[in-house]
Amino acid sequence: MLGKGVVGGGGGTKAPKPSFVSYVRPEEIHTNEKEATEKEVTLHLLPGEQLLCEANTVLKCVQEDSCQRGIYGRLVCTDFKIAFLGDDESALDNDETQFKNKVIGENDITLHCVDQIYGVFDEKKKTLFGQLKKYPEKLVIHCKDLRVFHFCLRYTKEEEVKRIVSGIIHHTQAPKLLKRLFLFSYATAARNSPATDPKKHAVMFDTLQDWCRELERTKGNMKYKAVSVNEGYKVCERLPAYFVVPAPLLEEDIEFFQGRGIPIWCWSCHNGCALLKMSALPKEQDDSMSQIQKNFSDRIYRTVHRPPYETAKTEDLSTNFLSLQEIQMAYSKFKQLFLIDNSTEFWDTDIKWFSLLESSSWLDIIRRCLKKAVEIIECLEAQNMNVLLLEDNASDLCCLVSSLAQVMMDPHCRTVFGFQSLVQKEWVMGGHCFLDRCNHLRQSDKEEAPVFLLFLDCVWQLVHQHPPAFEFTETYLTVLSDSLYIPIFSTFFFNSPHQKDMNVGKESQDSQSRPLNLLTVWDWSVQFEPKAQTLLTNPLYVEKPKLEKVQRKGTHFKHQRQLSLPLTQSKSSPKRGFFREETDHLIKNLLGKRISKLINSSEELQDGFREFYDGWHSRPPSYQGLLLPHLEGPEIKVWAQRYLRWIPEAQILGGGGVATMSKLLEMMEEVQRLQEKIEARHHSQEALQAEAASPPRTSGRLSSLFPFALLQRHSSKPVLPTSGWKALGDEDDLAKREDEFVDLGDV
């Protein structure tokens, strides 16, 4: 067993429950350590990456109830990642089905991806931080991409345990300086590597010409102009070197309050109205200064509000919308639902899944963001008004709402190139503080808030509701969210363009070599092979409004996590098979009563907004035109691929949307083969292209969480109580009790 690097064995049936099961004695591990070392996987280091500490004879555990099973190997920590190196033959056997990342392996954790570190002392789990007096027998690492790793250190030498545990804690939790990020080590080491042109993948908006072309594309160049007054960041370090303002605005107005109080153009609608954002003026106690600010604001406001020719509405996101604290608190609760240690914990939390989900408020925050974007669109489209978004620094919620509005209104932003350009324009050049919001430097938790992840979750809702309207897939959004924590890309590791230019500029001046080669995340060839990249694009993308939205067949649910919210009584009932036939009526009524409070308590939509919203949904969708989401409670779902992908119990083998997509792709390939036979003169060339563009195929059934699913943990579903349903009481009593219904999947 040791030769295969596995401790505890495998098996598909439920394991017994002793406190610890091991088929290898400790003395055998140490005596055979030399033999095992020869079979260890080689540690692959990126340019500039350095090994810091390591420990041998570590077991990477797979938790299943009270049984521990694991893979023997070596745990290492570098200045880029934590990596486990073991001889895992099961992973090699599934090589064809793996969606492999060339930078981050299955058992790699970048230091920036570490969320929390726990130690197990006498079966008790405690948070680890700072200097330790006692070292744990097991290390548990919770990751920001929601992976959970268990490393048993029981057979590791004491000195190695101290080094690896202390090293991991220090290099993942200690405050860092910006120039000490691995981003700079990698860029320096790769300085002489061939540089790729980032403009092949997105408009970078780092030149005046980029902004002028965007104005021309949106037909906004009649009322707005691109300016270079901030070139060299002479006026404001928060703003990019180039941006767009109303044409009547004078340059001295921009300089007056260092760029504050100035309407910054985001996008122009087909009717000539525009979406703008503005950072608030500093609050002044002095009356004379307050009057100066008021006069200045009134004059600037008239550049976008000139009735009856042009009107504007101001939307203050700092006072009338979400706060960063709300977003952070909601996500902190929400992510705990997916950081599952073992099968027992999964099924225990599944019983109260809906109430835990509701109490986190994350889905409600998503709904509020989508609703706010639709309100903005209604002003632009139906009322023909300019919309001016106001926020303290115009770099958080302004980025979120303006980006969502553009995704819904502009089909260009629903292409891969257009979406990547949108993120560059609104988030990177818009001065979103990625460094602080992702807490990459570990200097302050107070500034941390997953605003960009919230945006991606909102976009996923649109992708899920209107799949043919998007050129990219949910897998694209998932790997983009993962890329937030990979410090070889500069895209998400600076607070502003000024911060990036100043640090990269100084680095370039310190050396006589070539300038630093900072990568952008948009070159997906850095992370994925061409075959894997096909999973990032949607083969069912509708470029012309001919096809109707694909109606997906209902699936058979095994557990509550495969629903974000249960269906209300006003909606169509779920497919038979979710619950046993004899309990259908009881459970459907119960779920309707339990969740109706949430649905009915949502804020009422205003008459004008409701008319606009209902009017759009009453017509067939145009995938190359305006796109609105469904905002009703049950329509806002959990992004299953991102949040559930590491939980084997949450998978449906051969089911879910992936099964539907697989069948559609097979049909498309068959049609393509027929076309190739008809067009015989292009047969050889097109066949070659078709083969290169085919997504990865597997011999077995795909998981509903493909391509990320792991099938390493097997578990039995909870047993239905034998006391019968009568013992549970009548329907009215059940509706009042909190989460006392059970999951009945497949019993």
From TrEMBL:
<feature type="domain" description="Myotubularin phosphatase">
    <location>
        <begin position="205"/>
        <end position="643"/>
    </location>
</feature>
<dbReference type="GO" id="GO:0030017">
    <property type="term" value="C:sarcomere"/>
</dbReference>
<feature type="region of interest" description="Disordered">
    <location>
        <begin position="680"/>
        <end position="699"/>
    </location>
</feature>
<dbReference type="GO" id="GO:0016529">
    <property type="term" value="C:sarcoplasmic reticulum"/>
</dbReference>
<keyword id="KW-0703">Sarcoplasmic reticulum</keyword>
<comment type="similarity">
    <text>Belongs to the protein-tyrosine phosphatase family. Non-receptor class myotubularin subfamily.</text>
</comment>
<dbReference type="InterPro" id="IPR011993">
    <property type="entry name" value="PH-like_dom_sf"/>
</dbReference>
<dbReference type="Pfam" id="PF12578">
    <property type="entry name" value="3-PAP"/>
</dbReference>
<dbReference type="InterPro" id="IPR030576">
    <property type="entry name" value="MTMR12_PTP"/>
</dbReference>
<dbReference type="InterPro" id="IPR022587">
    <property type="entry name" value="MTMR12-like_C"/>
</dbReference>
<dbReference type="InterPro" id="IPR029021">
    <property type="entry name" value="Prot-tyrosine_phosphatase-like"/>
</dbReference>
<protein>
    <recommendedName>
        <fullName>Myotubularin-related protein 12</fullName>
    </recommendedName>
</protein>
<dbReference type="GO" id="GO:0046856">
    <property type="term" value="P:phosphatidylinositol dephosphorylation"/>
</dbReference>
<dbReference type="GO" id="GO:0016020">
    <property type="term" value="C:membrane"/>
</dbReference>
<keyword id="KW-0963">Cytoplasm</keyword>
<comment type="function">
    <text>Acts as an adapter for the myotubularin-related phosphatases. Regulates phosphatase MTM1 protein stability and possibly its intracellular location. By stabilizing MTM1 protein levels, required for skeletal muscle maintenance but not for myogenesis.</text>
</comment>
<dbReference type="Pfam" id="PF06602">
    <property type="entry name" value="Myotub-related"/>
</dbReference>
<dbReference type="InterPro" id="IPR010569">
    <property type="entry name" value="Myotubularin-like_Pase_dom"/>
</dbReference>
<comment type="subunit">
    <text>Heterodimer with lipid phosphatase MTM1. Heterodimer with lipid phosphatase MTMR2.</text>
</comment>
<dbReference type="InterPro" id="IPR030564">
    <property type="entry name" value="Myotubularin"/>
</dbReference>
